[in-house]
Amino acid sequence: MRILGIDPGLQVCGYACIEVGRGRQRLIEAGLFRTQANLAVEVKLNQIAADTEALLQRLEPDLFAVEKLYSHYKHPRTAILMGHARGVILQKAAEAGVEVRSFGATQIKKSVTGNGRASKQQVQKAVATLLALPQVPSPSDVADAIAAAVCCADSLSLPLVVRGRAGR
What we know:
This protein is α/β, with parallel strands linked by helices. It has one domain (2-167): Ribonuclease H-like superfamily/Ribonuclease H (Nucleotidyltransferase, domain 5, 2-Layer Sandwich). Helix content is 45%, strand content 26%. 35% of the residues are buried.
């Protein structure tokens, strides 16, 4: 099973595709897509939509994991802008017929680090360890996308293969 995790943003979106099976998780691909700072919001959203569609076509995920929208009272504009990007991303997943699972930031952090209030650096180190990556994923947007995909995988009830037969 393939899970595509996205860390949505209007300027930078992190993405990561992991493969889950036989009691293990393996990173297929991770990276970023960016929009230009001087573009109008609608142009940025169109670019995010095109980039998301290209990822969905190329990576062919079975599930799509994304962080729930979080709004801090001190930064409502940030939440609104992120909501625009998240909405376009979710629409593209729906259009492709890929099931979407949303997770809170604290749930994602707790899944990979054991601590729902973990720092960006702790998340980066944790996903590198969990997936036996040769180096810590950077920038943090990439690590956050990997963490969302891993959290999604951890939430599934997949049978484990035990000595050639399915078991729980």
